[in-house]
Amino acid sequence: MPDTYKAILADETDGVFQARLVELTDSALPPEPVLVDVAYSTLNYKDGLAISAQSPIRIPQVLPMVCGIDLAGTVRESADPAWRPGDRVLVNGFGLSERHWGGFAQRARLKPEWLVRVPEALSLEQAMALGTAGYTAMLCVLAVEDHGVKPGDGPILVTGASGGVGSVAVMLLAAMGHEVVACTGRVEESRAFLEGLGAARLIERSQLARDSRPLESETWAGVVDCVGGQVLATALAQTRYDGVVAMTGLTGGVALNTTVMPFILRSLTLRGIDSVLAPNERRTRAWTRLAELVDPARLAEIYQVAGLADVPGLADQILGGRIRGRVVIDVNA
Predict the structure, then answer these.
(1) How far is Cα 219 from Cα 241, in angstroms, rounded to an integer?
(2) What pLDDT, on a 0 to 100 scale, did the predictor assign at position 1?
(3) Separation CA 31–CA 22 (nearest Å)
(4) CATH code, residues 4-122+294-330
(5) What distances in angstroms separate CA 35 from CA 5, 88, 108, 280, one per listed residue?
Protein backbone atom coordinates (compact mmCIF):
# COMPACT_ATOMS: atom_id res chain seq x y z
CA MET A 1 0.00 0.00 0.00
CA PRO A 2 1.53 3.36 -0.98
CA ASP A 3 2.26 5.58 2.02
CA THR A 4 0.51 8.59 0.49
CA TYR A 5 -3.13 9.31 -0.26
CA LYS A 6 -5.27 12.14 -1.64
CA ALA A 7 -7.64 14.26 0.42
CA ILE A 8 -9.49 17.57 0.54
CA LEU A 9 -7.70 19.49 3.29
CA ALA A 10 -8.97 22.72 4.82
CA ASP A 11 -6.37 25.03 6.32
CA GLU A 12 -5.59 28.67 6.90
CA THR A 13 -2.49 30.51 5.69
CA ASP A 14 -1.84 34.14 6.61
CA GLY A 15 -5.47 34.48 7.66
CA VAL A 16 -6.81 33.11 4.38
CA PHE A 17 -8.99 29.98 4.59
CA GLN A 18 -8.77 27.46 1.76
CA ALA A 19 -9.83 23.86 1.15
CA ARG A 20 -7.93 22.10 -1.64
CA LEU A 21 -6.90 18.73 -2.99
CA VAL A 22 -3.60 17.61 -1.47
CA GLU A 23 -1.48 14.49 -1.06
CA LEU A 24 -0.87 13.37 2.53
CA THR A 25 1.29 10.70 4.11
CA ASP A 26 -0.03 7.85 6.24
CA SER A 27 1.81 9.31 9.21
CA ALA A 28 -0.67 12.21 9.16
CA LEU A 29 -3.62 9.91 9.88
CA PRO A 30 -5.18 10.22 13.36
CA PRO A 31 -4.27 7.45 15.86
CA GLU A 32 -7.65 5.69 15.80
CA PRO A 33 -8.13 1.88 15.98
CA VAL A 34 -9.76 1.16 12.59
CA LEU A 35 -8.13 1.92 9.23
CA VAL A 36 -10.59 2.14 6.34
CA ASP A 37 -9.87 2.26 2.62
CA VAL A 38 -12.47 4.84 1.61
CA ALA A 39 -14.28 4.22 -1.69
CA TYR A 40 -16.93 6.94 -1.73
CA SER A 41 -18.08 10.02 0.12
CA THR A 42 -20.88 12.42 -0.72
CA LEU A 43 -21.57 16.15 -0.82
CA ASN A 44 -23.97 17.68 1.71
CA TYR A 45 -24.93 21.28 2.44
CA LYS A 46 -22.79 21.08 5.58
CA ASP A 47 -19.83 20.06 3.41
CA GLY A 48 -20.38 23.18 1.37
CA LEU A 49 -20.25 25.23 4.56
CA ALA A 50 -17.05 23.46 5.61
CA ILE A 51 -15.22 23.92 2.30
CA SER A 52 -16.35 27.09 0.55
CA ALA A 53 -14.42 30.27 1.26
CA GLN A 54 -17.80 32.01 0.81
CA SER A 55 -19.36 30.11 3.73
CA PRO A 56 -20.94 32.30 6.43
CA ILE A 57 -20.08 29.62 9.03
CA ARG A 58 -16.72 28.04 9.86
CA ILE A 59 -17.45 24.32 10.28
CA PRO A 60 -13.93 22.94 11.00
CA GLN A 61 -13.21 23.57 14.67
CA VAL A 62 -9.55 22.66 14.30
CA LEU A 63 -7.19 23.14 11.35
CA PRO A 64 -5.85 21.52 9.29
CA MET A 65 -8.97 19.41 8.70
CA VAL A 66 -9.79 16.72 6.15
CA CYS A 67 -13.36 17.57 5.17
CA GLY A 68 -16.35 15.33 4.44
CA ILE A 69 -19.04 14.28 6.92
CA ASP A 70 -19.71 10.92 5.20
CA LEU A 71 -17.69 7.96 3.99
CA ALA A 72 -18.14 4.37 2.88
CA GLY A 73 -15.37 1.88 2.41
CA THR A 74 -13.70 -1.35 3.49
CA VAL A 75 -11.84 -2.07 6.70
CA ARG A 76 -8.11 -2.64 6.05
CA GLU A 77 -6.83 -2.95 9.62
CA SER A 78 -8.59 -3.07 12.97
CA ALA A 79 -7.44 -3.19 16.57
CA ASP A 80 -11.06 -3.69 17.62
CA PRO A 81 -12.47 -7.27 17.50
CA ALA A 82 -15.88 -6.05 16.33
CA TRP A 83 -14.42 -5.10 12.95
CA ARG A 84 -12.36 -7.25 10.60
CA PRO A 85 -10.47 -6.60 7.37
CA GLY A 86 -12.92 -6.72 4.46
CA ASP A 87 -15.94 -5.47 6.44
CA ARG A 88 -17.96 -2.92 4.46
CA VAL A 89 -18.64 0.09 6.65
CA LEU A 90 -20.02 3.60 6.56
CA VAL A 91 -19.85 6.62 8.85
CA ASN A 92 -22.19 9.61 9.07
CA GLY A 93 -21.52 12.59 11.31
CA PHE A 94 -19.87 12.11 14.72
CA GLY A 95 -17.97 15.35 14.23
CA LEU A 96 -16.25 14.34 10.99
CA SER A 97 -15.05 17.52 9.23
CA GLU A 98 -15.55 19.43 12.49
CA ARG A 99 -13.38 17.86 15.21
CA HIS A 100 -12.23 14.70 13.40
CA TRP A 101 -10.78 14.10 9.96
CA GLY A 102 -13.50 13.17 7.50
CA GLY A 103 -14.41 11.31 4.36
CA PHE A 104 -13.04 13.36 1.45
CA ALA A 105 -9.94 11.19 1.50
CA GLN A 106 -8.76 7.83 0.22
CA ARG A 107 -8.00 6.63 3.76
CA ALA A 108 -9.41 7.25 7.20
CA ARG A 109 -8.64 6.11 10.74
CA LEU A 110 -11.82 5.94 12.78
CA LYS A 111 -13.23 5.06 16.17
CA PRO A 112 -14.99 1.65 16.05
CA GLU A 113 -18.16 3.00 17.68
CA TRP A 114 -18.69 5.33 14.72
CA LEU A 115 -18.98 2.50 12.21
CA VAL A 116 -22.19 1.05 10.78
CA ARG A 117 -22.24 -2.05 8.58
CA VAL A 118 -23.37 -1.37 5.04
CA PRO A 119 -26.51 -3.48 4.40
CA GLU A 120 -25.95 -6.30 1.92
CA ALA A 121 -28.59 -4.89 -0.43
CA LEU A 122 -26.60 -1.67 -0.93
CA SER A 123 -23.33 -1.13 -2.77
CA LEU A 124 -20.82 1.33 -1.30
CA GLU A 125 -21.75 3.80 -4.06
CA GLN A 126 -25.45 3.45 -3.30
CA ALA A 127 -24.78 3.91 0.43
CA MET A 128 -23.16 7.25 -0.34
CA ALA A 129 -25.86 8.18 -2.86
CA LEU A 130 -28.00 8.12 0.27
CA GLY A 131 -25.33 9.35 2.71
CA THR A 132 -26.17 11.67 5.58
CA ALA A 133 -29.01 13.16 3.53
CA GLY A 134 -30.69 9.79 2.98
CA TYR A 135 -30.03 8.62 6.51
CA THR A 136 -31.45 11.89 7.89
CA ALA A 137 -34.47 11.56 5.60
CA MET A 138 -35.04 8.06 6.95
CA LEU A 139 -34.83 9.32 10.54
CA CYS A 140 -37.52 11.91 9.65
CA VAL A 141 -39.72 9.28 8.01
CA LEU A 142 -39.32 6.97 11.02
CA ALA A 143 -40.44 9.84 13.27
CA VAL A 144 -43.60 10.21 11.19
CA GLU A 145 -44.17 6.45 11.20
CA ASP A 146 -43.50 6.07 14.93
CA HIS A 147 -46.05 8.81 15.62
CA GLY A 148 -48.65 6.51 14.09
CA VAL A 149 -49.23 8.23 10.74
CA LYS A 150 -50.19 5.60 8.16
CA PRO A 151 -50.72 5.67 4.40
CA GLY A 152 -54.25 6.90 3.78
CA ASP A 153 -54.31 9.18 6.84
CA GLY A 154 -53.75 12.25 4.67
CA PRO A 155 -51.08 14.01 2.64
CA ILE A 156 -47.52 14.27 3.90
CA LEU A 157 -45.75 17.54 3.13
CA VAL A 158 -42.03 17.54 2.33
CA THR A 159 -40.39 20.98 2.24
CA GLY A 160 -37.09 21.60 0.46
CA ALA A 161 -38.08 18.64 -1.67
CA SER A 162 -35.52 19.25 -4.43
CA GLY A 163 -32.57 18.98 -2.04
CA GLY A 164 -30.74 15.93 -0.78
CA VAL A 165 -32.80 15.18 2.34
CA GLY A 166 -36.09 16.26 0.77
CA SER A 167 -35.75 14.24 -2.43
CA VAL A 168 -34.95 11.04 -0.53
CA ALA A 169 -37.83 11.71 1.88
CA VAL A 170 -40.21 12.03 -1.10
CA MET A 171 -38.93 8.74 -2.49
CA LEU A 172 -39.21 6.88 0.83
CA LEU A 173 -42.68 8.17 1.75
CA ALA A 174 -44.01 7.36 -1.72
CA ALA A 175 -42.53 3.86 -1.49
CA MET A 176 -44.43 3.39 1.79
CA GLY A 177 -47.70 4.34 0.06
CA HIS A 178 -48.15 7.89 1.35
CA GLU A 179 -49.62 10.74 -0.67
CA VAL A 180 -46.60 13.06 -0.86
CA VAL A 181 -46.84 16.79 -1.54
CA ALA A 182 -43.46 18.25 -2.47
CA CYS A 183 -42.74 21.89 -1.71
CA THR A 184 -39.91 23.51 -3.65
CA GLY A 185 -38.80 26.89 -4.89
CA ARG A 186 -38.21 25.39 -8.34
CA VAL A 187 -41.52 23.78 -9.24
CA GLU A 188 -41.35 23.66 -13.04
CA GLU A 189 -37.64 22.81 -13.08
CA SER A 190 -38.16 20.01 -10.55
CA ARG A 191 -41.57 18.65 -11.61
CA ALA A 192 -40.38 15.67 -13.65
CA PHE A 193 -37.69 14.86 -11.08
CA LEU A 194 -40.01 14.89 -8.05
CA GLU A 195 -42.95 13.23 -9.76
CA GLY A 196 -40.54 10.54 -10.88
CA LEU A 197 -39.69 9.96 -7.21
CA GLY A 198 -43.38 9.55 -6.39
CA ALA A 199 -44.65 13.03 -5.45
CA ALA A 200 -48.41 13.24 -5.98
CA ARG A 201 -48.23 17.00 -6.53
CA LEU A 202 -45.93 20.01 -6.10
CA ILE A 203 -46.49 23.38 -4.46
CA GLU A 204 -44.41 26.56 -4.64
CA ARG A 205 -42.32 27.46 -1.61
CA SER A 206 -43.89 30.93 -1.70
CA GLN A 207 -47.18 29.34 -0.57
CA LEU A 208 -45.50 28.63 2.78
CA ALA A 209 -42.72 31.24 2.96
CA ARG A 210 -45.09 34.01 4.06
CA ASP A 211 -46.60 35.49 7.17
CA SER A 212 -49.03 32.92 8.51
CA ARG A 213 -51.85 32.93 11.02
CA PRO A 214 -51.39 30.97 14.27
CA LEU A 215 -53.81 28.35 12.92
CA GLU A 216 -54.73 27.73 9.30
CA SER A 217 -56.75 25.08 7.48
CA GLU A 218 -55.82 21.58 8.66
CA THR A 219 -54.08 20.05 5.65
CA TRP A 220 -51.13 17.78 6.49
CA ALA A 221 -51.20 14.49 8.39
CA GLY A 222 -47.45 14.86 8.78
CA VAL A 223 -44.58 17.02 7.63
CA VAL A 224 -40.90 16.45 6.87
CA ASP A 225 -39.38 19.93 7.02
CA CYS A 226 -35.95 20.52 5.49
CA VAL A 227 -36.14 24.32 5.42
CA GLY A 228 -37.08 25.84 8.78
CA GLY A 229 -37.92 29.51 9.23
CA GLN A 230 -41.24 30.81 7.95
CA VAL A 231 -41.85 27.70 5.83
CA LEU A 232 -41.85 25.63 9.01
CA ALA A 233 -44.07 28.14 10.84
CA THR A 234 -46.73 27.95 8.12
CA ALA A 235 -46.50 24.15 7.93
CA LEU A 236 -47.11 23.97 11.69
CA ALA A 237 -50.20 26.17 11.34
CA GLN A 238 -51.56 23.81 8.64
CA THR A 239 -50.86 20.43 10.27
CA ARG A 240 -53.87 18.38 11.28
CA TYR A 241 -54.94 17.51 14.82
CA ASP A 242 -52.49 15.09 16.52
CA GLY A 243 -50.12 15.43 13.57
CA VAL A 244 -46.33 15.38 13.62
CA VAL A 245 -43.70 17.61 12.05
CA ALA A 246 -40.19 16.13 11.75
CA MET A 247 -37.83 19.09 11.43
CA THR A 248 -34.22 18.93 10.28
CA GLY A 249 -33.51 21.99 8.13
CA LEU A 250 -32.39 25.57 8.60
CA THR A 251 -31.73 26.88 5.09
CA GLY A 252 -34.80 29.11 5.53
CA GLY A 253 -33.45 30.57 8.76
CA VAL A 254 -33.04 29.56 12.39
CA ALA A 255 -35.80 31.80 13.79
CA LEU A 256 -39.25 30.27 14.23
CA ASN A 257 -42.12 32.76 14.33
CA THR A 258 -45.00 30.71 15.69
CA THR A 259 -47.26 30.42 18.74
CA VAL A 260 -48.19 27.70 21.19
CA MET A 261 -51.64 27.38 19.59
CA PRO A 262 -50.90 24.52 17.13
CA PHE A 263 -49.31 22.53 19.94
CA ILE A 264 -52.10 23.04 22.46
CA LEU A 265 -55.26 23.31 20.35
CA ARG A 266 -54.23 20.63 17.81
CA SER A 267 -52.01 18.47 20.03
CA LEU A 268 -49.21 18.87 17.54
CA THR A 269 -45.78 17.26 17.91
CA LEU A 270 -42.65 18.99 16.62
CA ARG A 271 -39.83 16.45 16.51
CA GLY A 272 -36.29 17.67 15.95
CA ILE A 273 -34.09 15.26 13.99
CA ASP A 274 -30.35 15.11 14.68
CA SER A 275 -28.20 12.84 12.53
CA VAL A 276 -24.76 13.72 13.89
CA LEU A 277 -24.87 12.09 17.33
CA ALA A 278 -27.81 9.69 16.94
CA PRO A 279 -27.16 6.43 18.83
CA ASN A 280 -25.91 3.44 16.89
CA GLU A 281 -29.14 1.48 17.39
CA ARG A 282 -31.13 4.25 15.69
CA ARG A 283 -28.57 4.49 12.89
CA THR A 284 -28.67 0.76 12.22
CA ARG A 285 -32.46 0.80 12.17
CA ALA A 286 -32.45 3.67 9.67
CA TRP A 287 -29.95 2.00 7.33
CA THR A 288 -31.80 -1.31 7.52
CA ARG A 289 -35.05 0.39 6.48
CA LEU A 290 -33.28 2.32 3.72
CA ALA A 291 -32.05 -0.96 2.24
CA GLU A 292 -35.61 -2.31 2.37
CA LEU A 293 -37.39 0.70 0.91
CA VAL A 294 -35.02 2.18 -1.67
CA ASP A 295 -35.65 1.30 -5.29
CA PRO A 296 -32.18 1.13 -6.92
CA ALA A 297 -33.55 2.42 -10.23
CA ARG A 298 -35.11 5.47 -8.57
CA LEU A 299 -32.01 6.04 -6.47
CA ALA A 300 -29.89 6.08 -9.62
CA GLU A 301 -31.99 8.97 -10.92
CA ILE A 302 -31.23 11.30 -8.01
CA TYR A 303 -27.43 11.32 -7.94
CA GLN A 304 -24.38 12.09 -10.02
CA VAL A 305 -20.77 11.01 -9.45
CA ALA A 306 -17.82 13.38 -9.21
CA GLY A 307 -14.18 13.15 -8.11
CA LEU A 308 -12.21 14.68 -5.24
CA ALA A 309 -10.86 17.41 -7.50
CA ASP A 310 -14.43 18.57 -8.19
CA VAL A 311 -15.33 19.06 -4.52
CA PRO A 312 -14.28 22.72 -4.00
CA GLY A 313 -16.32 23.91 -6.99
CA LEU A 314 -19.29 21.76 -6.00
CA ALA A 315 -19.20 23.26 -2.49
CA ASP A 316 -19.90 26.71 -3.94
CA GLN A 317 -22.70 25.27 -6.09
CA ILE A 318 -24.52 23.56 -3.21
CA LEU A 319 -24.40 26.73 -1.10
CA GLY A 320 -25.83 28.63 -4.07
CA GLY A 321 -28.74 26.18 -4.40
CA ARG A 322 -27.54 25.01 -7.82
CA ILE A 323 -27.41 21.28 -7.09
CA ARG A 324 -30.47 19.07 -7.37
CA GLY A 325 -30.54 15.70 -5.65
CA ARG A 326 -27.31 14.08 -4.54
CA VAL A 327 -23.63 14.08 -5.50
CA VAL A 328 -21.49 11.00 -4.78
CA ILE A 329 -17.74 11.60 -4.51
CA ASP A 330 -15.59 8.78 -5.90
CA VAL A 331 -12.41 9.44 -3.92
CA ASN A 332 -10.33 7.28 -6.25
CA ALA A 333 -11.50 8.86 -9.51
Answers:
(1) 10
(2) 57
(3) 20
(4) 3.90.180.10
(5) 13, 12, 6, 19
